Amino acid sequence: MNISIISVGKLKEKYLKQGIEEYLKRLSAYAKVEMIEVADEKAPEILSEAEMIQVKQKEGERILAKISADTYVITLAIEGQMKTSEQLAETIDHLATYGKSKIAFIIGGSLGLSPEVLKRGNESLSFSKMTFPHQLMRLILVEQIYRAFRINRGEPYHK
């Protein structure tokens, strides 16, 4: 299985990089997981509605350029469906069983995802009604993907 985590912006925090690297190392026994960063759009701190739309549009174009036609896309959005770890494991297992060997998880920038990216998504996933920094979300997501593989293999993992 090939899994891509496509996210907006550079990851600068060393502690997050270390955590992600640890889970990527653990995941290498189960799947090929690739972290893809696309540039965030430079914008002033305070934006008009039109400027926000334009920023999301440009970031969205960069994201879509990284997704092949045969990839199953899961967008991360507050409005998405909440799942338990077991349900995410079922989703990944189901996709693998039915020949969807390419999965991309999409994490937007600070303004979220463009309508075009959300439309390209096969499903939308929410981790919480709370807002998390998109850099931290990468670590949370990669840990949950690792947990999903452990669940699917019936291997122990602390709860």
Automatic annotation (TrEMBL):
Catalytic activity: pseudouridine(1915) in 23S rRNA + S-adenosyl-L-methionine = N(3)-methylpseudouridine(1915) in 23S rRNA + S-adenosyl-L-homocysteine + H(+)
Keywords in alphabetical order: Cytoplasm, Methyltransferase, rRNA processing, S-adenosyl-L-methionine, Transferase
Its EC number(s): 2.1.1.177
Pfam families: SPOUT_MTase
Compartment list: Cytoplasm
A GO molecular function held by the record: rRNA (pseudouridine-N3-)-methyltransferase activity
Top enzyme class: transferase
Oligomeric and partner information: Homodimer.
PANTHER family: METHYLTRANSFERASE (PTHR33603), RIBOSOMAL RNA LARGE SUBUNIT METHYLTRANSFERASE H (PTHR33603:SF1)
Function: Specifically methylates the pseudouridine at position 1915 (m3Psi1915) in 23S rRNA.
Family, similarity comment: Belongs to the RNA methyltransferase RlmH family.
Stated name of the protein: Ribosomal RNA large subunit methyltransferase H
Name of the gene: rlmH
